[in-house]
Amino acid sequence: MSDTETAAGAHGAIEAFPDEDALLMRRVATGDEQALVSLIERWKGPLINFFYRSVSDFAEAEDLAQTVFIRLYRSAPRYEIRAKFSTYLFQIARRLLLNEYRRKKRHPIDFSDPAELHAIDTGLSDKQLREIEELFSYALQDLPENQRTAILLFQQQELTYEEIAQTMDASESAVKSWIFRAREHLRSKLKGMLQS
Amino acid sequence: MKPSNQSEPTQASHPVLSDTQCDAILAALFKNTPTVDPKSTDAFCASVIARIHAEQTASSPDAEKLEKMLFSRECVLPSKTFTVNTLDRIHAGDEVRRPSAFWRISGSLAVAAALLMAIGIYVQQKPQTVNEPIATTVPAAATESAPAIVAAPVASEPPILATDWSTALALAEARDTAQATGFASASSLPAVANSYRSYNIPTQAPFVSAAPIATGASQSRAATDPNLVNAFLLADGLNDARSLLDADSMQALVVLSH
């Protein structure tokens, strides 16, 4: 089967068996606020996580997440099921993020308190965890936007290469390249910090 | 690996991490985010819906009411700035509705272009003034066989030459009229006289120069001498000649000319 036929088949499969979130979007288009609330409850966390790692400010991340849902509501009448809902959602999120980078100044980095974080079984102390968290945030901010977004969508949101390519309007090979380089950068920073 | 119970060492020492171990730490870091109080989801949803309603109704909800609604749900907002940001965004209705600078500038340019096009079309369609030559009316005395007299030119243009004597006569009369009204200049008359020579109009006597003939004593002589009359006619207008010659003499003059 050729690539075109595979893509067409996948598209047809999505159309024939839309995911639950896509069905909720159709209800949102009719003005169903409860459907919107359901989507918010499902995607609020992942969106805030994504924005938090992108802007390193929790309040900003929440505000951006809110804006995504507002834009989602506005675009609902035009929504067409062409891919997974998560792809569509993070397309909106990324566009919003790029706009924010252009418009707003960077907020001071607001590091998470390691006591609230999920436990990382690495044998590290709280102080070391805090330092790692701080290093990790700085290292992420050092990345170019495309590498940071690609690795966040891959590692944090668990999207596939194909879905990330659709979200970022890029080729799969470019996405893989970005993720590889981002991972290399983060590894080197982490190793350097832990071995210093 | 269990967390160490010892006091934190002044100098951390770790074995060299493998790529796999690094990836595991990174994976955990990616998943880690500040735990969000589940109660705040209600406030989050309420804020989103409130902002949507605010945009739809183009009116800002009362800030106090919104704040009361948020806090009445006994939720702990993760950050005070979150609430402030949300309320600011709701009240910034003008920012939402005002067209961007791009559209404002584009609209102004479009209006200017339309005005320029309208002005251009008006200028092209404006009737232009054509300088047409002034027609000279041929007097009724001219013979029917006389060719049509071309419109008399203005003083700065060379005179139109007649093709026969009778036409010349008519032309002279016209010029006389024009001269009387101050239109044509006398300098054009000699050219008319010269044209008779070129047409070789047979005359008993040659044309005399078109120099104006003195008035007074010479007038009586002009009354009897056709050539002189001719000259008089051509040089000084018809009115005096008519006062000197009767109609028959005038006709005879024409016949003699041919």
Which word captures the global form of chain B?
rod-shaped
Q: What can be said about the biggest beta sheet of chain B? A: none
Strand content of chain B: under 5%
Largest binding interface between chains = A-B, 50 and 41 residues
Classification by helices and strands of chain B: mainly alpha
Q: Which word captures the global form of chain A?
A: globular
Distance between the termini of chain A: 52 Å
What's the gyration radius of chain B in Å? 55 Å
Count of helical segments of chain B? Answer: 12
Q: On the 0-100 scale, what is the average pLDDT of chain B?
A: 54
Strand count of chain B = 0
Q: Which stretches of chain B are low in confidence, meaning pLDDT under 50 for 5 or more residues running?
A: 1-12, 70-88, 90-98, 130-163, 181-225, 231-245, 252-258
The DSSP helix count of chain A reads 9
The radius of gyration of chain A is 18 Å
Quaternary organization? heterodimer
- The rounded distance between the terminal residues' Cα atoms of chain B is 143 Å
SSE sequence of chain A, one letter per element: HHHHHHHHH
* Major sheet summary line of chain A: none
- Structural class call of chain A reads mainly alpha
Structure characteristics:
heterodimer; A: 196 residues; mainly alpha; 9 helices; 0% strand; globular; disordered N terminus; B: 258 residues; 12 helices; disordered C terminus
Structure commentary:
- The complex is a heterodimer of chains A (196) and B (258).
- With 196 residues, chain A is mostly helical.
- Chain A is built from 9 helices and no strands.
- The N terminus of chain A is likely disordered.
- The longest helix of chain A is centred in the last third of the chain and has 24 residues.
- In chain A, helix 4 packs across helix 5, helix 6 runs antiparallel to helix 9 and helix 8 packs across helix 9.
- Chain B is an all-alpha fold and 258 residues long.
- Chain B has 12 helices and no strands.
- The longest helix of chain B is centred in the middle third of the chain and has 25 residues.
- Chain B is rod-shaped, with a radius of gyration of 55 Å.
- The N terminus and C terminus of chain B are likely disordered.
- The interface between A and B is large, with 50 and 41 residues.
